[in-house]
UniProtKB/TrEMBL annotation:
Organism: Mucilaginibacter arboris
Keywords assigned by UniProt, alphabetized: Signal
PANTHER family: HYPOTHETICAL 460 KDA PROTEIN IN FEUA-SIGW INTERGENIC REGION [PRECURSOR], PEPTIDOGLYCAN BETA-N-ACETYLMURAMIDASE NAMZ
One Gene Ontology molecular-function label: peptidoglycan beta-N-acetylmuramidase activity
Protein name per Swiss-Prot or TrEMBL: DUF1343 domain-containing protein
Domain Peptidoglycan beta-N-acetylmuramidase NamZ N-terminal, chain residue ranges per copy: 54-253
Signal peptide from the UniProt entry: 1-30
């Protein structure tokens, strides 16, 4: 009898504990529901494509669902007529190196013509647009001014506006959804900076498209008819792990989150790890030997970096593969300390920003978006002084940005 009573009591306690755990699990799910990209929500846009000739601006990140099925394959199975595919930098399959020209081709898997927007032309031609009724833009961005997807977006918007075609944007989260850095001085406008935005603009592709329209950034202030399929259950401060690498040299989540800070080093003699299998997670130079114990050696890697800076030379510097990027992301700021530290440690100051040394070095002024940044680093200015120089333009941008945000 006593054993029965004990068993019944334990059974009730077990049910109570299980019930509490289930309640807690349901509460957690309610607080952190699963993010669904615009592409995942086919029910919202497939009806808009039925019976139409469709063009798609896509790459390897354009996937649907947890099985990561390419969106072009999913839409073809649903009976959508896809007439053309447009590929951005790195190509439709995402296997071309940074800056490499990409040619037109016929996709071997689908038989659909693939038109490069990073080769002979940067926007679809009238002939391209005449072949379609509607365009889809579905590419994962990483939220930086010098990442060229936003340039491709604007070029496609321009082509759609010129030819009276609607653009459907399947939105995706921004893994670097904070606002920081100097706003681009338009005197320094280039292929790595076309719009008056800071280094991290804090917007998804859908939000950025609304800003391009709203601020009149297309030629002659043309307006593109856009429809954004927003991300479901998403807020800007949520951490988002990219399911597919966005480009060959952003091959880990760590590299994606370090990219806004480390890409500035492309305007210096410091390697960011191109030519290794850990790009944008390490920093170094042969001239830092004896100063830092950590080392790596860039080599030629086809499809990633054929002729990297300091090729076949041992570089010494910083290993950031285990750096706390969650803390960095939560800070809402790019890291300036690494630039300040490595310039101070570098023995040949006159070479640090001298891009005449190598074709693999970029223009620091165009990367930073201002001529002041280089001068401030060379003068040993404090981080506080550097950040103060970004005002009032940065605060003005933040206020302007609020008009176009779709997510909190």
């Amino acid at each position: 009898m006593n054993r029965t009573i004990i068993f019944m009591r334990n059974r009730k306690l077990l049910f109570l504990v299980v019930g509490m755990l289930l309640l807690q699990a349901n509460f957690c799910c309610a607080q952190n529901p699963t993010i669904q990209t615009g592409a995942d929500q086919t029910e919202l846009y497939v009806p808009l494509l039925k019976g139409k000739n469709v063009g798609m601006v896509i790459n390897q990140t354009s996937v649907i669902g947890t099985r990561l099925v390419p969106s072009v394959d999913s839409l073809l199975k649903l009976g959508i007529r896809i007439k053309e595919i447009f590929g951005p930098e790195h190509g439709f399959r995402g296997n071309a190196s940074n800056g490499a020209k990409v040619t037109d081709e016929i996709d071997a898997e689908t038989g659909i013509p693939v038109i490069s927007l990073y080769g002979q032309k940067r926007k679809p031609s009238k002939k391209d647009m005449d072949a379609i009724d509607i365009m889809i833009f579905d590419i994962q961005d990483v939220g930086c001014r010098f990442y060229t997807n936003i340039n491709t977006l604007a070029d496609v918007m321009e082509a759609c506006a010129e030819n009276g075609k609607e653009l459907i944007i399947l939105d995706r989260p921004n893994p670097n959804a904070f606002v920081d850095g100097p706003v681009l001085d338009m005197k320094l406008k280039s292929g790595i900076g076309r719009f008056p935005v800071p280094i991290t603009h804090g917007m998804t592709i859908g939000e950025f498209a609304q800003m391009v329209n709203g601020e009149g950034w297309l030629p002659d202030k043309m307006q593109c008819k856009i429809k954004v399929i927003p991300v479901k259950n998403y807020m800007h401060d949520l951490d988002y792990v990219l399911p597919v690498n966005p480009s060959p040299n952003l091959n880990t989540q760590q590299s994606v989150l370090l990219y806004p800070s480390l890409c500035l080093f492309e305007g210096t003699t410091i390697s960011q790890g191109r030519g290794t299998y850990m790009p944008f997670t390490v920093l170094g130079s042969p001239d830092l030997k004896g100063i830092y114990p950590f080392s790596f050696t860039p080599v030629s890697i086809p499809g990633k970096s054929e002729t990297p800076l300091h090729q076949n030379e041992v570089c010494y510097g910083l290993d950031l593969r285990n750096y706390n990027t969650v803390k960095l992301h939560k800070s809402g700021q790019i890291n300036l300390k690494w630039m300040m530290e490595l310039y101070k440690a570098y023995p040949y100051k006159e070479k640090f920003f001298d891009m005449s040394q190598s074709k693999q070095m970029g223009n620091i002024d165009k990367l930073a978006g201002t001529t002041l940044f280089k001068e401030q680093i060379m003068a040993g200015k404090s981080e506080k002084e550097i950040r103060q120089s970004w005002e009032p333009e940065l605060s003005r941008y933040k206020a302007m940005r609020q008009k176009y945000v779709l997510y909190k």
